[in-house]
Every structure is written in structure tokens, then in C-alpha cells.
Design brief:
Elements (H helix, E strand, L loop, with lengths): L13 H10 L3 E7 L5 H10 L3 E4 L6 H9 L7 E5 L11 H10 L4 E7 L2 H11 L11 H18 L2 E4 L5 H12 L8 E8 L10 E4 L20 H8 L4 H22 L3 E8 L5 H15 L3 E6 L6
Parallel strand pairs: 1-3, 1-4, 2-3, 4-5, 6-8, 6-9, 7-8
Length: about 300
């Protein structure tokens, strides 16, 4: 059968084939972070979600893995690579590999697993294994060396998850919340209330302080309740400056969200604090989360310290 000038009866024009090849480039997630912080659990979660997972791949081979995935005719659409200090001989190549991926317009994200020194020490001691970087020193020496090595990568991460107080199931839940959906929104936000007396969340991108508002803790009839209670929320937002703060801070977040989208950042954690993480920060977090959601940002609101006292 003859063909017309468009090649409609053939296998497709070069342009069409080129577009198909470009569309076949896999989505990439790089999982890294502190040894003992849960990298294997995070990788297993993505594997269960249908991702092709490669553990401890030398960074220099990441672009090659993406190219192989692109040749799979769509069979390998999502790749997750675990990069850690076990491959420290190759770690210097990571920056070059990331630049190569960016030049090829590969959609890639970095997930960094963080944890406190105390939590990491407990985990290594519980399994009676040395830290991969401790050498002849102590576990804390290895942790410090690893943290220094990964500092720049942590700064470049799209998503930082602090696993200090998370069990395996809670970490899987966080990963599911970020990666289980079929549709990939432009920006996902976590709004987290917390209590300053329990420490700052180390995985927060932005931190805001609500302690300028009167504390419902000192109102006897409100003390037993939380910021999820209507009476407490009404009390908080009837205080001078509360509504103005909500309006102006959400306007600022909208400006920041626009910049994050422009820079390709897909995740942001906003931490809202008060003294105990029970009243003011909870009420404010709920309102901020609702405002962000109304602006088209997929938002999850969590209350880190609620019920802790």
C-alpha cells in the first residue's frame, strides 16, 4: 500500500517517534539520607507502589539507569535509586550526574531521610552493627562524618522526612501520602503544628511562631480542649492580630508557593508552633491548611505534639 506525504501508514514520523521517546523518559526519585534513618523502608514502600527500585547504585550510573528505563517502552516508567555512604567512593559523582539529568530534562526528586543523633545511636546499638563511617571511633563519630558528607545533598532535597519519632508504619504512611496518588500535583504542602517545648521539627522548610497570641491554656474552661475544638478556635481567632496574621501569612505562602513551583520544588513543610502544640498552633494550622487547599495546593495537616502532654 502506498503512503502519503505524511507517512500516515508507516511507523510514524521522526518527530512523532522523538516525542514518544521523550515521553518514555522515566520519572526518577533519589532516596538518600542518614544511615539508620529508614532509607530501606522508604525504598520498599516505593517498590510496593510499583516503582523500579535500585539499592546502592553508584551515582555515576544513575543517568545510564534512566536511559535503560527509557528504552523499556514504558515498562519502567518510575525509577527509585538509593544513594548512600556505602558507595562513598562514587559519591563525588552525584553532582555531575544530577547536572546530566537536568540537562536531559529528566523529572527527578530527592527524598532525604533525617533523624536525630540519639535515635540513630539507639538504632545502631539495637542491631549491634557499626556505623559505616565510624572506623575505629564511636557510632557518634560516624554519624557526624556522614552528616557532614550529606549536608549539601540535604539542602538540595525536595522532601526531607524526619524519622526520629516514627515507626516503620508511620514512615510508610508518609511515603504513601506523597507518592501513592496517580495524579502528581504541582505542589504538596504539609502544615504541621508543634510545641516549642518539644523542640523544632527538623524537616520543616518554614517555621512560624504563634506564641504572640494569648494562650487558651490559662482559660480554665478551654484548657482541657484542643485547637480542633470550635470554642478554642473561636477564642484564638478573636484575639487581636490573629485574623490579620492568618491573612498576611497565607498571602506570603502563596507568593512562596509560586516561587517553589517555578523552581520545580514539589514539597513544602510549614511548621506552626506554640508552647505545647495543643491550642494556638493547632487552630492556626487548620486554617492555614484550609487556605492553601483553597488555592489549589494539595495539603495535609498534621499535629505532631497533640496529645503528648
Amino acid at each position: 500500500m502506498s503512503t502519503d506525504s505524511t507517512g500516515a501508514s508507516g511507523s510514524g514520523t521522526p518527530k512523532e517517534n522523538g516525542e514518544a521517546t521523550e515521553a518514555a523518559i522515566p520519572e526518577l526519585v533519589i532516596i538518600s539520607g542518614m544511615s539508620g534513618a529508614g532509607r530501606s523502608t522508604a525504598a520498599k514502600c516505593l517498590e510496593d507502589l510499583g516503582w523500579f527500585v535500585v539499592d546502592n547504585l553508584p551515582p555515576a550510573l544513575i543517568p545510564t539507569m534512566v536511559e535503560l528505563g527509557a528504552r523499556s517502552q514504558g515498562n519502567v516508567a518510575r525509577i527509585a535509586v538509593v544513594v548512600d555512604v556505602r558507595g562513598r567512593r562514587f559519591f563525588d559523582n552525584l553532582r555531575e550526574s544530577l547536572a546530566d539529568l537536568d540537562a536531559k530534562q529528566v523529572t527527578r526528586r530527592i527524598v532525604f531521610l533525617e533523624s536525630s543523633e540519639d535515635a540513630l545511636v539507639r538504632r545502631f546499638e539495637s542491631v549491634r552493627r557499626p556505623h559505616p563511617l565510624q572506623g575505629d571511633g564511636r557510632i557518634v563519630d560516624g554519624i557526624e562524618a556522614e552528616r557532614d558528607l550529606l549536608r549539601e545533598l540535604r539542602g538540595d532535597a525536595d522532601l526531607v522526612i524526619d524519622t526520629s519519632d516514627l515507626n516503620v508504619h508511620e514512615l510508610r504512611s508518609k511515603m504513601d501520602a506523597q507518592f501513592a496518588g496517580d495524579e502528581k500535583p504541582e505542589l504538596r504542602a504539609t502544615v504541621m503544628s508543634f510545641g516549642y517545648k518539644y523542640g523544632l521539627p527538623v524537616d520543616a522548610d518554614l517555621v512560624v511562631d504563634c506564641r504572640f497570641l494569648p494562650n487558651p491554656h490559662w482559660v480554665p474552661e478551654l484548657r482541657p480542649f484542643t485547637g480542633l475544638n470550635d470554642e478554642v478556635a473561636t477564642y484564638v481567632f478573636n484575639q487581636p492580630g490573629a485574623k490579620e496574621f492568618l491573612d498576611r501569612y497565607t498571602e506570603l505562602l502563596q507568593l512562596i508557593a509560586t516561587g517553589y513551583r517555578r523552581e520545580g520544588k514539589r514539597y513544602v513543610t510549614v511548621a506552626v508552633g506554640c508552647t505545647g502544640g495543643k491550642h494556638r498552633s493547632v487552630a492556626m494550622s487548620e486554617k492555614i491548611g484550609a487556605r492553601l487547599a483553597s488555592e489549589g495546593v494539595e495539603t495535609v495537616v498534621v499535629h505532631r505534639d497533640l496529645g503528648r502532654e
